Amino acid sequence: MKGAFAEIVTTLSHLPGVVAAMIVGASDGLIVETSPMKGAASGGADSRKHTAALAAYLYSKVTRASDAARLGTPVFMRLEAERGQICVVGARDVVLVTIVTSDANLGRVRLDMMKAARDKS
Amino acid sequence: MTQPTVAEPWVAGPLRRLMDDARLISGVLLYPTGKAVGQFGFSSAADVMSVCALTSAINASARELGRQLDGKPFLEMHHAGADRQVFMARCTAGSHEFLFVGVFDRESSFGVVEIYFEEFQKAIGKLSPATEVRGIGPSGDFEGELNRSLDALFGPLGK
Predict the structure, then answer these.
(1) What ipTM was assigned to the predicted interfaces of this complex?
(2) On chain B, which terminus has fewer CB atoms closer than 10 Å, C or N?
């Protein structure tokens, strides 16, 4: 299973505009598998752990909101910020998280994340 | 949500932030000897007394277990129950060591608690309790220390 996770992370991290790709425990928010953070200074603060925990937490809240609105399970979550975006897709007991640049090909990222989630499930 | 009550005022700010950010249900900051420094989420001194005694004992056991298994003491522990989870870890301020035990449910997650506890560790680490702490070393009077710290948190019993 670890090999399959590593393959998913590698594939997603090679997409243009993807800064980091992670597989995170849906309930605990802990990183299961992650790619390196592109462009991160060596020895600098690593934000992946924080991003993973908070993205998984946010996804769980979005799931509740979506459920409350009787819309079913969220398919794709995108958080747009000033200098980039965070994308999250649920895959049963894990969530796929990518940190992408503002000018990334979001359609491609979305498609590949959802395909990876489908394959994983 | 109840605000923290503290025996030592310098921990009030960081403890409140940890409680709010990590969405903890309850928590206690204590010295490894079992003396409580601050708490939130508990309404009874007896509950805090139990938590302090158990945390102190668990820390001592886990520390020794870590030494035997890994050559060094464990830094933190996490137990996931069916509904609630317990997180226990150490932090230091100046030359003083503290233990923290917190309880959370599905409103939070282990990852979230862990990252905000790291921030709490940093915040506490920048503070200096040296001028405000009196007699934290083990005095041999475990029960007396525990009762004095609980009096500071909840007021003297029977008054």
Answers:
(1) 0.81
(2) C
